[in-house]
Specification:
alpha+beta; Alpha-Beta Plaits; five-stranded antiparallel β-sheet; 5 strands
Length: 113
């Protein structure tokens, strides 16, 4: 969380996982324990990247995790714990606009339990 963020500011956490079952597992866990209000599981896509000086290509499932800044580290920790990659992609983006009703809903879903 940056110094400019409040705990209840909305953020998007993005990651990719190698298969649908793991995507569903992570999404279910994050929502069930209140770390995320919603997780979108995207369609399989091909990722191209360099790993240990070798060009790699792998099918991955994107996850878009909607949460609040105060839950950011817990979300990251949960994804890292469940993720099989040595260096999983985890990117956090600030939400700069939303409807008030949606923002209120996300905040309510992500309250400490």
């Amino acid at each position: 969380m940056t110094a400019m963020q409040n705990n209840d500011d909305l953020i998007i956490v993005m990651t990719n996982v190698p298969d649908v079952m793991l995507a569903k597992h992570i999404a279910h866990e994050l929502v069930e324990i209140g770390l995320a209000a919603c997780v979108n599981i995207g369609a399989e896509s091909l990722s191209m990247y360099m790993w240990q000086d070798t060009m790699e290509g792998a099918s991955e499932i994107p996850l878009t995790i909607k949460t609040v800044a105060g839950r950011q580290q817990a979300v990251i920790d949960a994804v890292v714990k469940a993720h099989p990659f040595d260096v999983p992609e985890i990117v956090v983006l600030p939400v700069i606009g939303s409807t008030q009703a949606y923002a209120d809903w996300v905040r309510a879903q992500c309250k400490q339990r």
